[in-house]
Amino acid sequence: MNQSLMMFRMLEGAVIDNKYHLRELLGAGGFGAVFLADEVVRDNLLRQVAVKIIPDDDNQQLIELMEATRLDHPYLIRSHTAGESGFNNISLLYLVMEQADYSLQERLEQGKLSVSETQTLIREVAAGLDYLHRQNKVHRDLKPGNVLWSNGCWKLSDFGLIRSLGNRSYAQTSNPIGTIAYMPPEAWDDKHRISKAWDIWSLGIMIVNVVTGKIPYQFQEQTQLLKQVMNCNLNLPPVPSELQEIVQGCLQQNRRKRWTAQQVLDAVQPRSSSFGYTLSSIADLDLSSERPGINYYKLRDLLAAKRWGDADRETAERMCEVMGRADEGWLRVEDIERFPCKDLKIIDTLWVHYSQGKFGFSVQKKIWIECGSPTSYNDDWLRFCDRVGWREGGEFLSYRRIIKQGSHASLPMGVPVVGLGFGDLVLCFIGLGFIVREGGRWLLFSRATTCKL
Question: Fewer Cβ within 10 Å of end Cβ, the chain: N or C?
Answer without folding.
Answer: N
